[in-house]
Amino acid sequence: MHTAVFPGSFDPITTGHVDLVRRAVPLFDRIVVAVGINSQKSYLFGLEQRMQWLREVFADEPTVRVDSFEGLTAHYCSRIGARYLLRGLRNSSDFDYEKTISQLNGIVGDGLETFFLISQPTYSHISSTIVREIIKGGGDARPFLPDTLQLPARHDTPA
Ligand code: ADP
């Protein structure tokens, strides 16, 4: 049983994340989209909201499940018996950051392997950070969000 964990904040999930997971579905027996909880970080959307969106988006993918975790990603993987991490690469900044993290995870996670998928050109400009800025500025973020995702009313209308 090959399980991959796709860790992230998903604040909120974007079409870029969705594309990555759907492309990885044929590669693994099971993918766990895991929302990392970092008490030092402040989020635009609450944990339950982010997880609900993830569950809705992947409801049609029987091998994808949604979970959350605190602490080190490598320890979480070991707890659930996952030997693989899944991450996306949009550009060279992602690469520089992800390379170090994956090497550390390989050591802390005792051989935990990270699989990288290069973002498709149509998604490589999309990030949760940019989407949050658009929402906070009262813009329309729908082109970057999955169709099933309904923003709460206060985020729907320009401020
Ligand atoms: P984090 O806060 O840990 O960076 P994110 O939720 O922003 O988590 O992203 C999780 C993963 O999804 C990262 O590997 C990131 O590179 C990938 N990702 C984010 N946006 C895209 C995109 N548009 N295309 C491909 N991968 C993406």
Could you characterize the architecture of this molecule?
Helices cover 37% and strands 21% of the residues. With 159 residues, it is of the alpha/beta class. Helix 1 (15-24) links the parallel strand 1 and strand 2 (30-37). The longest helix is centred in the middle third of the chain and has 17 residues, at 92-108. The model has no long low-confidence stretch (mean pLDDT 95). Residues 8-10, 14, 16-17, 20, 87-88, 90, 94, 119, 123, 126-128 line the site of adenosine-5'-diphosphate.
SSE string, helix = H, strand = E? EHEHEHEHEHH
Molecular shape:
globular
Number of helices: 6
The order of strands across the largest sheet is 3-2-1-4-5
- Biggest sheet, in brief? 5 strands, parallel
The total beta strand count reads 5
End-to-end Cα distance: 48 Å
Low-confidence stretches: none
Beta-strand level of the residues, as a percent range? 15-25%
Oligomer: single chain
Helix percentage: 25-40%
Output the structural class. alpha/beta
What is bound: which ligands? adenosine-5'-diphosphate
Overall mean pLDDT stands at 95
Cα gyration radius (Å): 15 Å
Summarize the helices and strands and which ones pair or pack:
Blueprint: E1 3-8, H1 15-24, E2 30-37, H2 47-57, E3 64-70, H3 73-80, E4 84-89, H4 92-108, E5 113-118, H5 128-136, H6 153-156
The protein binds adenosine-5'-diphosphate.
Concise synopsis of the structure shown:
The chain is of the alpha/beta class and 159 residues long. It has helices at 15-24, 47-57, 73-80, 92-108, 128-136, 153-156, and strands at 3-8, 30-37, 64-70, 84-89, 113-118.
